[in-house]
Amino acid sequence: MKRTLGYLLFPAALLVVIGIVGSCGYKDEMEPNIDPVINLYNHPCDGDTLGAAPIICWTGFDTDGKVYEYEHIDLPKERNGKGIDSLLYKTYKENPSLLQDVEYLTTIDGNKVRWVHTEQTCDTVFLSLLEQDSTTEHFFCVRAVDIDSSFSELVCATYYRTNLPPDSCEITTDSLEDKEFWILRDTTYSWDGIKIGWKATDPDNSIILEYYWVLLEWDGTEGGDTLISSLLEDTLGGPNSGFDSTDGWIRNTNTALRGVIPGSGDYLFIVQVRDDAFYAGAADSAVITLAQPVFDISDSTVRQAYADRTFHHKVFIVDQNDIAGYIHQDTVWAFYEPIFAEMQSEGLIYGYRRENTGYDELEIPRTELADYSILWVLDQDYFFKIQSSFLQELMLYVKVGGRIVLDGRFMLSEELESWDELPSYDYFGIDEDYSGSGSQIFAYGIPNTQIPGYPELTVDSSKTPGGATAIRRVNRIGARGPAYGGSPYTQILYHFGISETASPSDSTNYNLGPVAVRYVTPSFRTACFMFPLYLMNNDEGQVEEVVRSTIDFIEQQVIPEEEER
Predict the structure, then answer these.
(1) Cβ of 549: how many Cβ atoms within 10 Å?
(2) Which residue in 1, 41, 339, 520 is a FRET match for 395, CA 20 to 30 A apart?
(3) pLDDT digits over 73-100, tens only?
């Protein structure tokens, strides 16, 4: 009897359990989703008139899940042929629920008004002031969206926007109209654009100001076609992109100007400001002189021509030899001119030009230097030194891809007060490692480092005062040895040769000290001879070989394929 009762109770219990489990699952599947709810807080009152874009906050709840995001929309009422059609505006204002199924609305002038998606519980709402309107009416609505994509009911408010446009815009870059600027198509390893900054003020104290800048052709009286604009920076996105990433208005207060221009010359730069009502206000402008080098290394066609060895290099010889010096400049040029002329006739270079300049400034306009990819600076005298401003100009030329050869004495000196401003390793691959210069330490030849094309050199006593076999006042330079681990790197070309009459200290300090190097970076090549090649024997074409080898090195692709390892 007990066993029979047990058999009867077990099936009954099992049915109860199944019923409970089954009923629970059925209840969950049938329970409808509950829409989220939303409320506004810390916001302007309905009907307020505002002079700047407000920050509006809201809070959302979802009793059976969580709020996924918030969406808000702003409808500007039609005025002067812009905004949302008046009848349509009235329809949505009287029955906001109709907006729930709207993806976007099209204004009378063809713009689209869309829902703005955000996970934040506060947002700046850009209530625009329609053109030629003194007060624009706006209908603003916000809703919460849960994880099931269900919407809350809309919470809406009407606001009125007035506005005073920004009343000042000023370019803050000093002396923009008093200088010449190098410009490349794009930034490079060594050049980061022309830095131009500006500032503006707005009488309404708009939360956000946006700017639009353009570079125009300039005929001397008015601007022409637009060449470069802030649209490029706007489309990059990020925090400095404007409200609309397709219209060119950005939130930066500066730019790094770069791009393609028709050629070197004067151009008009204009920047204008608009406020958070998208009302354009004050503007400022400047005429700037730009030099776009033919050797622009950021240009892929130039890089390819370098690689193919088809680029037409021209050399600008900057002759620093003073007329009053013990070596007359005409004598020096008479030595070099046939070498450059022969290289041109052979097609190694495609032209050269020589100018004498002072020591204080490089008195050659950048718009003229832009046609020459190589600067060969001659300075055989030791009475004068190139000054800081001159060197700074050389550095800027190198930064944009120009190639420089320094050939002479005191090109770089520890006595320059501006040494800290000239990081010589960045431009010539040498360190600040100078000692004084002796008088008899350079007498019996200049040992090379077995680099092809650089034969051992000896002093030509017929060119030195009194027929001396030594050159006085030659500085040792601090150079890092060759490191072929990529670019940049330095190669030492020549060392000091020590005479028998050199003092023990000179022998210790100078023996095999570097006196000539060449240098490679991803953007440019340079070479530096701290002794005058002019004063070396050329009876067997030694100096001509050095000049040719250096030009050949300078002209090569910045990082030849065999050196990329």
Answers:
(1) 18
(2) 339
(3) 999 999 888 899 999 999 999 999 999 9
Of the candidates 458, 486, 459, 479, the one whose C-alpha atom is nearest the C-alpha of residue 528 is: 479
Q: In CATH terms, are 37-161 and 168-291 the same topology?
A: yes
Q: Look up residue 324 and give its amino acid.
A: A
The verdict on whether omega for the bond into residue 488 sits within 30 degrees of 0, i.e. cis, is: yes
Per-residue CA distances from 348 to 224, 342, 377 (Å): 40, 9, 19
The pLDDT, as a whole number, for residue 10 is 42
Structure tokens at 241: 């992109």
* CATH (residue range 168-291): 2.60.40.1930
* 263 contact partners, CB below 8 Å, separation of at least 6: 292
Indicate the DSSP class of residue 431: E
- Percentages helix, strand, coil for the chain, rounded to the nearest 5? 25, 30, 45
Candidates 3.30.70.270, 3.40.50.880, 3.10.450.330, 3.30.300.20; CATH matching 300-560: 3.40.50.880
Using CB atoms within 10 Å of the CB of residue 349, give its burial: 0 to 12 exposed, 13 to 18 middle, 19+ buried. Answer: buried
What are the sequence ranges of the domains in the chain? 37-161, 168-291, 300-560
